[in-house]
Each structure stands twice: as C-alpha cells, then as structure tokens.
Amino acid sequence: MTDKELVILAKKAAEVAYAPYSGFTVGAALLTKDGKMYSGCNIENAAYSPTNCAERTAFFKAVSEGEREFSAIAVVGGKNLDFKEFCPPCGVCRQVMSEFCDGDFRIILSRNDEELKVYTLKELLPLSFGL
Ligand code: THU
Asked: Is 55 considered catalytic here?
C-alpha cells in the first residue's frame, strides 16, 4: 500500500470521529507488516479525560485482534474534517507506538490533500522509555 493510499484511508476514518466537544476530527490508518490496515478515529467523552486519540484507537483495535508488527501509520486531523495543517501524534500516542514499534516505524502526516510529510518514530520520540 502506498503512503497516499494510507492517507486516504485515514481521511475516511476521520469521517466517523466522535468529537462533539472539540470539533477536531482525527483519523488514522495503521498498516501491519503483512499489509493489513486498521483504522481509528478520536472518541471524545463528556468527562474529557476518557477521550481516546485516533492513533490509539487504531493501535488498540489492531493489538486486540492479535497484531503485533506494524510498519506505518497515516494521520490526518483538523476542525470538522478540514485537514489544512499537519496533525502530529500527541506524546501519549507516541509512547503507545513505541511499545509495539521499532524506531524505523513510519508516521505519515498529510495536509491540504496532496502534501505529505514522513517521519520515523525515532525522530518523533527520541530517547524513549521502554523495558
Ligand atoms: N487527538 C487525536 O485524536 N490524536 C492526536 O494525536 C492529538 C489529539 C484528538 C483528541 C481530541 O479528541 C481532539 O483531537 C482535540 O484534542
């Protein structure tokens, strides 16, 4: 699967984001090493702190289906599905990624439809804590 295809799936995932409080809709598409895709959206909560980010939704869906090996994730986010800025994953999501992924895991961000930026997990979470 190409990076662009993964971004399209992340955008589709954002369409079902549950974000009535912030209006900030996020979608993620997580690719396993053997080519399967798990999508995720952010899921907000009236009590705020139970809110789950799109990236973690995708990871938790995949891990709960037995997946352990991942190669890339595409993430898009913006107010009401308007993805005009890059949406880099929050620190908590980076830490969850580091539990299951190597430093060369790829994080694909997109804005304004065509623009892509690709980082490795090592770049976004240097000196990470792990066992
Ligand atoms: N959010 C994500 O889904 N992923 C991130 O990496 C950052 C933030 C969500 C959480 C919340 O529902 C909304 O964006 C605004 O913070």
From this structure: yes
Cβ of 44 below 6 Å from ligand 1 = yes
pTM value is: 0.97
Task: Determine how β-strand 37-41 pairs with β-strand 24-32.
Answer: antiparallel
Angle CA 73–78–43, to nearest 5:
70
Distance (angstroms) between ligand 1 centre and the Cα of 34 equals 27
Q: How confident is the model over 75-89, as pLDDT tens digits?
A: 999 999 999 999 999
Residue 114 confidence (pLDDT) above 90? no
pLDDT mean over 1-17: 98
CB half-sphere exposure, 98, CA atoms < 13 A: 18
User: Could you read off the pLDDT of 29-38 as tens digits, one per residue?
Assistant: 999 999 999 9
Distance CA 79, CA 92 (A): 21
Collapsed DSSP state (helix, strand, coil) of residue 41: strand
Of the candidates 55, 67, 69, 115, the residue annotated as catalytic is 55
Pairing, β 70-79 against β 24-32: antiparallel
